[in-house]
């Protein structure tokens, strides 16, 4: 197998590996086209040359109890980045609340490996969460917010994020079990929505994903 090489663009490398050396593996989870042409996807080495559906099936065996929801009223560019981070933490599902169409560019096709639900309204989303016994944890810098760093996060929950700039809607805030804020120490009032998503998911993982019990695969 060939190593990755510098490709188009000044700063970016072509990720992945080239065509697989023969004889090819014959297990059903391998993709013949990828074996022949190489696998340039941004996936773990374990999943090189695997079919998408085979990767999803393997991830499904170890999904975490955390779910992520994003309000989508303004086609926020950050939604894709939050979805990509959600994939990195192997959350159970992602919820898009509001407009069905969302900006997938930042997701870098990681939404293929996740279950994505759509809810037209906050009320519809709240009903789904109630039926599935999922407390909604809002993440936003508001006067009512409590500290994320000192919060005892439920293992089974859904974190709700608002729009870049505008933050969570009033309707979104109203359905939250609690709203948490990330402590900041500079002059800016708020941080990038996708950065906040990554920090919040990491905070949950530090409480519930003990490395001793969840070794790398």
TrEMBL record:
InterPro entries xrefs: Alpha/beta_knot_MTases, rRNA_Methyltransferase, SpoU_MeTrfase, tRNA_m1G_MTases_N
GO BP: any one term: RNA processing
Entry keyword annotation includes Zinc: no
Assigned keywords, A-Z: Methyltransferase, Transferase
Occurrences of domain tRNA/rRNA methyltransferase SpoU type (ranges): 66-202
A single MF term (Gene Ontology): RNA binding
Domain of life of the native organism: Bacteria
PANTHER family assigned to the protein according to its UniProt record, in alphabetical order: RRNA METHYLTRANSFERASE 3, RRNA METHYLTRANSFERASE 3, MITOCHONDRIAL
Protein's name in the database: rRNA methyltransferase
Organism this protein belongs to: Candidatus Nanopelagicus limnae
Record lineage: Bacteria, Bacillati, Actinomycetota, Actinomycetes, Candidatus Nanopelagicales
